[in-house]
């Protein structure tokens, strides 16, 4: 259940960034999770619901963008997406490849309310 | 309003891990993180590694467990400095725990620091600690199908130890299948079949580790 720690990481970074922008509320947190990581979205959403109450992110949505596994063939150089267990090159059949995507754990962006989104006056 | 962050989720862990890395490099300490299920033989592997390499390197151990000091005490009985980390429920070690544990060791007096991660095949994979190499141990009784079930740990390991190899005839363990799946997931990682408690096969693993330690010395002196 390391999703709790990962979720805390998402929340800490998001809250810092949101406060720095003077946010009154976080509406959405968008993250990218590679398919080769051991992160389960269900557990992540569960942790998110447990950790957000009482913070600026209470009631916000955690939007997860899943990044497929991708490798580069060490023989012919082809780049291709593949499932978790078989990274055999579809072009030349070589089983050995270099992973190039699928291990990401990134916070991409936030959608926030700043409270002064009403027309500004007196500037 | 949208804020673009493009930040690593585990940024804090990774920043502290990089601090650990710099400290280890400065002090010339090679760090290996051992990951395995509970009962796979992590502590026995550490004891076997100590026996094989203690004449060549000054060794220390960090023991990660949810609770108890049993493992650190076992190591200390052999005259090796050991620090116990109790995670208090956390299923893996993180770099701040390593940072605290390291402060209790004299790094000037250490060449090889072995970190025993919490027994778990899932969680330790995402957490860089600042180590030179992650190594995973699978024991024969756990079954040859584990790389199918827990692929990430096999993908990131720089070497795989197949422990309790003396029992291979007693279990329905398909070694050929195991080696072929590991190779598909991670063609770089050598697989060392050994019995940590009986000593068979420990030599090859210890030689690999010694080679890695020597390589890291050469590459840091070239910088």
Count of the separate structural domains of chain B: 1
Total helices of chain A: the number is: 2
Q: Could you give the order of strands across the largest sheet of chain A?
A: 2-1-6
Determine Rg of chain A (CA atoms, Å). 19 Å
Explain briefly what this protein structure is:
The complex is a heterodimer of chains A (123) and B (223). Chain A is of the alpha+beta class and 123 residues long.
Give keywords.
heterodimer; A: 123 residues; hypothetical protein PF0899 fold; three-stranded mixed sheet; three-stranded antiparallel sheet; 2 helices; elongated; B: Rossmann fold; seven-stranded parallel sheet; 8 helices; globular
Structure description:
- The complex is a heterodimer of chains A (123) and B (223).
- Chain A is α+β, with helices and mostly antiparallel strands and 123 residues long.
- Chain A has a single domain, classed as hypothetical protein PF0899 fold (2-Layer Sandwich), CATH 3.30.2320.80.
- Chain A has a three-stranded mixed β-sheet, covered by helices on one side.
- In chain A, strand 1, helix 2 and strand 2 form a beta-alpha-beta unit.
- Chain B contains eight helices and eight strands.
- The longest helix of chain B has 21 residues.
- In chain B, strand 3, helix 3 and strand 4 form a beta-alpha-beta unit.
- Chains A and B meet through helix 1 and strand 6 of A and strand 1, helix 1, helix 6 and helix 7 of B.
Question: How would you summarize the topology of this molecule?
Answer:
The complex is a heterodimer of chains A (123) and B (223).
Chain A lengths: L2 H18 L4 E10 L6 H11 L9 E7 L2 E4 L5 E3 L15 E5 L3 E9 L10
Parallel strand pairs in A: 1-2
Antiparallel strand pairs in A: 1-6, 3-4, 3-5
Chain B lengths: L1 E7 L2 H17 L2 E7 L5 H12 L5 E7 L4 H7 L5 E5 L8 H8 L9 E5 L16 E7 L6 H4 L1 H6 L2 E5 L11 H11 L5 E3 L8 H21 L1
Parallel strand pairs in B: 2-5, 2-6, 3-4, 3-5, 6-7, 7-8
């Amino acid at each position: 259940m390391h999703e709790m720690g990962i979720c805390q990481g998402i929340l800490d970074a998001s809250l810092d960034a949101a406060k720095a922008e003077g946010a009154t509320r976080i509406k959405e947190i968008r993250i990218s999770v590679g398919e080769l990581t051991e992160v389960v979205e269900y557990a992540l959403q569960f942790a998110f619901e447990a950790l957000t109450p009482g913070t600026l992110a209470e009631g916000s949505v955690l939007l997860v963008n899943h990044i497929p596994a991708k490798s580069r063939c060490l023989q012919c150089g082809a780049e291709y997406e593949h499932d978790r267990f078989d990274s055999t090159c579809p072009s030349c059949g070589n089983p050995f490849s270099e992973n190039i995507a699928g291990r990401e754990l990134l916070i991409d962006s936030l959608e926030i309310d700043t409270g002064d989104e009403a027309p500004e006056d007196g500037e | 309003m949208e804020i673009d962050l493009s930040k690593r989720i585990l940024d804090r862990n990774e920043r502290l891990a990089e601090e650990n890395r710099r400290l280890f490099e400065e002090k010339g300490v090679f760090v290996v993180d051992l990951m395995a299920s509970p009962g796979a033989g992590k502590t026995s592997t550490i004891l076997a590694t100590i026996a094989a390499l203690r004449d060549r390197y000054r060794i220390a151990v960090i023991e990660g467990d949810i609770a108890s000091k049993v493992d650190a005490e076992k190591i200390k009985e052999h005259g090796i400095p050991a620090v116990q980390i109790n995670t208090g429920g956390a299923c893996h070690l993180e770099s701040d725990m390593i940072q605290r544990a390291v402060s209790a060791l004299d790094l000037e007096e250490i060449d090889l620091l072995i970190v025993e991660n919490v027994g778990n095949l899932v969680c330790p994979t995402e957490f860089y600690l600042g180590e030179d190499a992650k190594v995973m141990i699978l024991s024969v009784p756990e079954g040859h199908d584990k790389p199918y079930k827990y692929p990430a740990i096999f993908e990131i390991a720089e070497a795989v130890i197949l422990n309790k190899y003396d029992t291979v005839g007693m279990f329905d363990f398909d070694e050929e299948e195991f080696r072929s799946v590991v190779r598909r997931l991670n063609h770089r990682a050598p697989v060392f079949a050994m019995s940590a408690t009986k000593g068979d096969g420990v030599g090859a693993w210890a030689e690999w580790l010694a080679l890695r330690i020597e390589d890291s010395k050469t590459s840091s002196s070239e910088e």
